[in-house]
């Protein structure tokens, strides 16, 4: 990984801010890290733990993924997503809410799932899984809570651990792990890690954005992989720099691993 390290360090030299990242070759166990335990505002990366808890409760028989929930007008919040644009009173299954939360980062769907699953259950599960820095403290778009210090937190090491657990089906029946990967692979927000990748390359991932914060993490499926990747950035002078940085790193990673397999 020394050659990859040089390429990454050269890319980072052109940017300002702070970052943490982990790149793991799941097949070989080789990995590259920079500040893996550095804690960041989670932004929408917290939606991966919420998805996992939905699957855990479904596997335990506590919820039914096909259960319908009503999207009441008072539940709709601004920001990312589509539910705020649809008619009040529309019904969605829990599976559909999870899907919208991931592929469109829908904030209304996210808050409905937090209410259903409970914040404490989500946090307890993440603690049991060994995620040391991940905590859900507030719902989406609750900026008053964030300003009061109740920000959602995570680290690149935690996200890598959770994605590895999902991929390995090590804690839930395989069908639930496969469903989570399928949902992540249908991600519609592709302006970071996959931005420069060929369309045929599959990456099951989730992004996160806040002012001064840009994250992306997921599973990149290549012949020598899969590669489980998480890149987190914060204290950015402008978000566009974070977008450019994570996209550039995605290109570096793909060219290092993907083209090496071809050549």
TrEMBL record:
Residues 21-233 form the Beta-lactamase class A catalytic domain. One of its GO terms (molecular function) is beta-lactamase activity. One of its GO terms (biological process) is beta-lactam antibiotic catabolic process. InterPro entries: Beta-lactam/transpept-like, Beta-lactam_cat, Beta-lactam_class-A. It holds the Pfam family Beta-lactamase2. This is Beta-lactamase.
């Amino acid at each position: 990984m020394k050659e990859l390290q040089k390429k990454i360090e050269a890319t980072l030299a052109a940017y300002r801010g702070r970052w943490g990242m982990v790149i793991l070759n799941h097949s070989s166990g080789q990995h590259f890290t920079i500040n893996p335990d550095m804690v960041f505002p989670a932004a929408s990366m917290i939606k991966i733990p919420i998805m996992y808890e939905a699957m855990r409760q479904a596997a335990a028989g506590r919820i039914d993924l096909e259960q319908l929930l009503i999207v009441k007008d008072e539940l709709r919040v601004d920001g990312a997503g589509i539910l705020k644009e649809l008619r009040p009173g529309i019904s969605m299954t829990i599976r559909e809410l999870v899907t919208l939360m991931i592929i469109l980062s829908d904030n209304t769907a996210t808050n409905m799932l937090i209410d259903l699953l409970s914040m404490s259950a989500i946090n307890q599960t993440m603690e049991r899984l060994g995620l040391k820095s991940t905590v859900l403290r507030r719902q989406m778009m609750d900026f008053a809570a964030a300003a009061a210090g109740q920000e959602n937190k995570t680290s690149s090491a935690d996200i890598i651990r959770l994605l590895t657990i999902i991929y390995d089906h090590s804690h839930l029946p395989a069908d639930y792990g496969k469903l989570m990967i399928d949902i992540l692979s249908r991600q519609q927000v592709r302006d970071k890690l996959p931005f420069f990748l060929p369309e045929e390359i599959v990456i099951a991932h989730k992004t996160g954005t806040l002012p001064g914060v840009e994250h992306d993490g997921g599973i990149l499926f290549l012949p020598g992989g899969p590669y489980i990747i998480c890149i987190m950035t914060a204290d950015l002078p402008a978000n566009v720099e974070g977008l450019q940085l994570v996209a550039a790193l995605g290109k570096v990673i793909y060219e290092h691993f993907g083209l090496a397999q071809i050549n």
